[in-house]
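User: Can you recover a sequence for this backbone? Please restate the input before giving your answer.

Assistant: Of course. Working from this structure:
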C-alpha cells in the first residue's frame, strides 16, 4: 500500500472481522457480544480472516 500524498510505502495492513446475523431473540448486547467473540476468534486464528457465525 502506498500513501498518495507522500508517495511512500505505508507497510502492510491487516484486517479481521466477526460477522453475525440478527436473530429475533437477540438483544443489541447479545448481538455485539457474539460478533465480538467471532472477531477475537479470527484474530486468534492468524488475523486477516472473516469469521461468520455458524448455525
Amino acid at each position: 500500500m502506498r500513501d498518495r500524498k507522500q508517495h511512500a510505502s505505508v507497510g502492510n495492513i491487516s484486517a479481521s472481522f466477526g460477522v453475525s446475523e440478527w436473530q429475533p431473540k437477540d438483544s443489541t448486547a447479545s448481538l455485539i457480544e457474539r460478533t465480538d467473540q467471532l472477531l477475537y476468534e479470527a484474530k486468534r486464528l492468524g488475523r486477516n480472516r472473516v469469521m461468520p457465525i455458524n448455525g
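That completes the design. Residues 15-52 form one domain.
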